[in-house]
């Protein structure tokens, strides 16, 4: 009987420790966001000229916001940069949009690269490789198609560079959008994602998401260049891991990355989060055990049971207070990341928050039960450690 009692108390202590640690991360991330994000960008002339930047823009297909998103890269307040657009196929409709922008802004140095170069299974790396080889500047900005830039974003990122800093990346966030999908997206990226991203950066843990990432070309070449990461789907994580292992540091920029997809939907975001979860499980298998403890509802349930076992607390009131304080903490985090009030009511935030929190454990469960990854028109299988293998399409009879 005694071993059973010790086991119960051991689990209870584990949940309480995890609960305390997560609340410390809440406090740390919220405080860090107030200090880190949305600083005023210094537009005064520098003592030394800013280094040139080659912007790589991999494109596949179009959406209603693509033209306006791409146009923001032609109006950046930065003295020396080039924009290198990459498409896999000359018949891609994005080609027409790019050509119209090249015609509209002839004074901006920009090129279109068509066809890609096969260096691995990652289609994004393959698409960017010719442009990367042709890039002429010492800094490389890899920017996804759906990113919208403020005119001072690139200046902010470059100003975060130091002699020992090789990567400056933006924390993922979203532009304002109408509809429940827009609320869900902003709530997720402004609360759960922001909390773990800022907490990891503060603690020096690799949290690099490559949707908008500035990297020194010399540091990337030390690791074998862009092509060295063609065997991974999560090339951003392994790129940062390889660069940091050589003594370089990373920093998060003060302006978040503004995702501005023109085709938002709840299903599309959940499919994306499931794909990311599958990648994390393959890269860091302990994700399966630790990630549920970072979510409000599973952690709250475990901590409520543990408080009852250890301190005689009533589990239900404990759980309800936990959820309420977590909700209020996330509201403050979203306001900090948004740099003001979000573009929806508190009731809409409540609905989006409850949906996001309830879906989070289900997303992880789906990723665990079905590890096959679908990305655009391709399917992949991941080995432990993150290497990817493309699966041949199944024949239909």
Automatic annotation (TrEMBL):
Q: Where is the signal peptide?
A: none
Q: What is its EC number?
A: 2.4.1.80
Glycosyltransferase as a keyword of this entry, yes or no, is yes
Enzyme category, top tier = transferase
Cellular component annotations (GO), alphabetically ordered: Golgi membrane
Reaction catalyzed: UDP-alpha-D-xylose + an N-acylsphing-4-enine = a beta-D-xylosyl-(1<->1')-N-acylsphing-4-enine + UDP + H(+); N-(9Z-octadecenoyl)-sphing-4-enine + UDP-alpha-D-xylose = beta-D-xylosyl-(1<->1')-N-(9Z-octadecenoyl)-sphing-4-enine + UDP + H(+)
**Which protein, by its recorded name, is this?**
ceramide glucosyltransferase
**Species this protein is from:** Parnassius mnemosyne (clouded apollo)
């Amino acid at each position: 009987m005694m071993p059973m009692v010790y086991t119960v108390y051991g689990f209870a202590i584990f949940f309480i420790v995890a609960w305390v640690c997560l609340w410390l991360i809440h406090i740390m991330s919220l405080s860090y966001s107030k200090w880190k994000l949305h600083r005023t960008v210094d537009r005064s002339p520098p003592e030394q000229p800013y280094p040139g930047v080659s912007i790589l823009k991999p494109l596949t297909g179009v959406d209603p916001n693509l033209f306006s998103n791409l146009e923001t890269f032609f109006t950046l307040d930065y003295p020396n940069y080039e924009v290198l657009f990459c498409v896999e196929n000359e018949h891609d409709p994005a080609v027409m949009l790019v050509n119209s922008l090249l015609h509209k802004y002839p004074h901006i140095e920009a090129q279109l690269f068509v066809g890609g170069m096969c260096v691995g299974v990652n289609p994004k790396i393959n698409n960017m490789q010719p442009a990367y080889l042709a890039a002429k500047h010492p800094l490389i900005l890899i920017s996804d198609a759906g990113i919208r830039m403020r005119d001072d974003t690139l200046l902010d990122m470059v100003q975060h560079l130091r002699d020992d800093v090789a990567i400056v990346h933006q924390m993922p966030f979203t532009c304002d959008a109408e509809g429940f999908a827009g609320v869900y997206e902003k709530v997720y990226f402004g609360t759960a994602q922001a909390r773990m991203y800022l907490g990891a950066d503060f603690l020096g843990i690799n949290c690099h998401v490559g949707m908008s990432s500035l990297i020194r070309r010399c540091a990337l070449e030390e690791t074998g260049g862009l092509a060295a990461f063609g065997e991974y789907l999560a090339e951003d994580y392994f790129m940062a891991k390889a660069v940091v292992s050589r003594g370089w540091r990373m920093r998060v920029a003060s302006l978040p990355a503004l995702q501005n997809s023109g085709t938002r939907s709840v299903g599309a975001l959940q499919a994306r989060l499931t794909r990311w979860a599958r990648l994390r499980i393959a890269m860091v298998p302990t994700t399966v055990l630790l990630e549920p403890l970072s979510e409000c509802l599973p952690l709250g349930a475990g901590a409520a049971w543990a408080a009852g076992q250890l301190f005689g607390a009533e589990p239900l009131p404990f759980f309800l207070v936990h959820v309420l304080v977590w909700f209020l903490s996330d509201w403050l985090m979203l306001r900090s990341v948004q740099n003001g009030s979000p573009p929806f009511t508190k009731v809409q935030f409540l609905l989006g928050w409850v949906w996001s929190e309830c879906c989070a454990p289900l997303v992880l469960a789906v990723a665990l039960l079905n590890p096959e990854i679908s990305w655009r028109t391709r399917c992949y299988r991941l080995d432990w450690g993150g290497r990817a293998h493309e699966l041949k399409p199944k024949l239909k009879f």
